[in-house]
Specification:
Radius of gyration of chain B: 25 Å
Shape of chain B: elongated
Strand content of chain B: 5-15%
Largest interface: A-B, 85 and 119 residues
Number of strands of chain A: 0
Helix content of chain A: over 70%
Order of helices and strands of chain B: HHHHHHHHHHHHEHHEHEHEEEH
Shape of chain A: flat
Distance between the termini of chain A: 45 Å
Oligomer: heterodimer
Structural class of chain B: alpha/beta
Number of helices of chain B: 17
Distance between the termini of chain B: 79 Å
Number of domains of chain B: 3
Radius of gyration of chain A: 18 Å
Helix content of chain B: 55-70%
Order of helices and strands of chain A: HHHH
Number of strands of chain B: 6
Largest sheet of chain B: 6 strands, parallel
Structural class of chain A: mainly alpha
Chain lengths: 97, 462
């Protein structure tokens, strides 16, 4: 695997970015924001695809197959439900879409 | 450039999309675009990972991958489309749970494929597996609570602290074992212990605190994904997972402070001291309340100058938003000032009620946030509370009450208060509301939508 220190560096910098990127959010947007963040961690689908591609033997394939399904449900469902929530705010006067 | 370089550039583009998505989602103007940018990011990443695979040898499982993606897309899209807006919180919990489970499973397979190595790789695997399984079972339990398949009240049993301590200790021992010796059995045992910890963590959380726990578990899943990324040596997973972990932690704190709660208090509050929620619930039985007919209430409303609606979850369940909006229009045509008081956690999640009312075409200006509307209650002739309870409960200002410190709408300061309720049953927090017994309070029992329809009819007849 890649040098652990490099990965640690990326982790720490991403953590700061995550804290900084959302500063003040009105309570109106708490639910969509949570739902959107929830969809983003569905990116685990990438990891699931990688392990399934390399899986050999019964249980590995089975577990990795389940992981791809679950991760896809997370990411697709997450974005669809977030979009449905935000769709309802679009007809606000003053705000463009 | 090699294929690997292109794949990594694709990952970089995806990571940028996720940062922009979170940024967009925190501003009302760009929220929807933010969500769309995020989904584009995922698409780029999935395409990139497929290009990466072609340089690999094992392609025999490509068909399986395609099938799994199709099944997942179908299930995810259909359930997200079908779910009613009222049931959204548990939907998010479910999606979060499957994400956590996926992260745990990925770490399990990766551990085997990497030859059960010890040290750094095992540390990442252990983190991903443990946090992922805690998040999976915890989310499953919040789903059951919100879907009302089990009680929404805190569940505490004797010896719970011991059980929690024992499973936490067991998790640490097993984790150390995996890191030191690289045993597969120990890792599987760790995942099982993780499931137990998740259940024990969420059981004592009750009522209105459940959404905050979903947000916390969401951050957990993010961290599990980041740890999976470390195990796989995949930078995109580390970045995206960490972003969600960090921003999710911030969001959890914001939500908790909007409700006047502390995160540790929510998680461990029910452990310390007996839960008074259960004992006060029965007090209300047999105490006199003042009931009113729809005609009585319509007269109160029709001859008022200023009316404030306080919508709650009960309104949403009964799908009465549209009828309430019609009532508002009829009242306004009589020259009455109508506004909606929106508690930050009205409904079941922060911002939930705004979504529901927007769905019913209530104009955005009519929705007033708590701090803005609270000073206006003394000037209101009637406060009409529709299917809300906890968010107007003055007990929040009494020390020792389970909801002490939660900011409330000061409905009790209005000249007259009308509750549209199904029954005397207490709200989600499971505590009695003294305001129901106040002499200036009238109660109109029944399904919110039916009551509103009757009210609308009699106001029109005035």
């Amino acid at each position: 695997m890649t040098d652990p220190i490099v990965l640690l560096t990326i982790f720490v910098l991403a953590a700061f970015l995550g804290f900084e990127v959302i500063s003040k959010v009105s309570s109106t947007l708490h639910t969509p924001l949570m739902s959107g963040a929830n969809a983003i961690h569905g990116i685990i689908v990438v990891g699931a695809i990688i392990v399934l591609a390399e899986a050999e033997g019964g249980w590995e394939v089975g577990v990795a197959f389940a992981a791809v399904i679950l991760a896809t449900i997370n990411v697709v469902g997450g974005f669809v439900v977030t979009d449905r929530m935000l769709e309802m705010f679009k007809s606000r006067p003053g705000g463009r879409a | 450039m090699t294929t690997e370089d292109w794949v990594n550039l694709g990952y970089l583009a995806a990571a940028v999309c996720f940062v922009l998505a979170l940024k967009g989602l925190s501003s009302p103007k760009y929220a929807r675009r933010g969500s769309q940018v995020g989904s584009v990011g995922v698409l780029i990443a999935v395409v990139a990972v497929f290009f990466g695979l072609q340089s690999d040898d094992e392609l025999g499982n490509l068909a399986l991958i395609a099938i799994a993606l199709l099944i997942g897309t179908g299930v995810g899209a259909v359930s997200a489309r079908r779910v009613r807006m009222t049931a959204m919180p548990q939907m998010v919990a479910a999606f979060n749970g499957v994400g956590g489970a996926a992260a745990a499973l990925v770490s399990l397979v990766e551990f085997e494929q990497a030859g059960q190595e010890t040290g750094w790789g095992a540390l990442a695997v252990v983190f991903a597996g443990l946090i992922g399984s805690v998040s999976a079972s915890g989310s499953a339990l919040t789903f059951l609570k919100l879907q009302e398949l089990m009680t929404g009240r805190p569940v505490v049993f004797p010896g719970m602290q011991v059980a929690m301590g024992a499973s936490a200790l067991g998790a640490v021992v097993l984790a150390a074992l995996v890191i030191a010796t690289g045993g597969m059995t120990a890792l599987v045992a760790l995942l099982v212990v993780g499931l137990v910890v998740g259940v024990l963590l969420v059981l004592p959380v009750g009522g209105a605190d459940v959404p905050i726990v979903i947000s916390l578990l969401n951050a957990f899943t993010g961290l599990a994904v980041a740890a999976s990324g470390a195990a796989l040596g995949n930078v995109l997973l580390i970045i995206a997972g960490t972003l969600v972990g960090a921003s999710g932690t911030m969001l959890t704190q914001m939500m908790a402070s909007a409700m006047g709660r502390s995160v540790t208090g929510i998680l461990f509050g029910a452990f310390s001291g007996p839960s008074s929620a259960g004992s006060t619930a029965a007090v209300g039985e047999g105490r006199p309340v003042r009931t009113a007919s729809p005609e009585d209430v319509s007269i109160m409303l029709g001859y008022a100058k200023k009316v404030i609606f306080v919508p709650g979850y009960g309104l949403a369940v009964a799908q009465g938003q549209h009828t309430l909006q019609e009532l508002a229009q009829v009242l306004e045509s009589r020259g009455i000032e109508v506004s909606y008081a929106i508690h930050p956690v009205a409904g079941r999640m922060p911002g939930h009620m705004n979504v529901l009312l927007a769905e019913a075409n209530v104009p955005y200006e009519a929705l007033r946030e708590m701090d803005e509307i609270n000073p206006e209650f003394p000037r209101a002739d009637v406060a009409l509370v529709v299917g809300a309870n906890d968010v107007v409960n003055p007990a929040a200002q009494t020390k020792g009450s389970p909801i002490y410190g939660m900011p409330i709408l000061h409905v009790d300061e209005a000249q007259q208060v009308v509750f549209l309720k199904r029954s005397m049953r207490p709200g989600f927090a499971g505590i009695e509301n003294e305001l129901l017994f106040n002499p200036k309070t009238s109660l109109l029992f029944g399904d919110a939508k039916e009551s509103l329809t009757k009210l609308l009819q009699s106001v029109k007849n005035l």
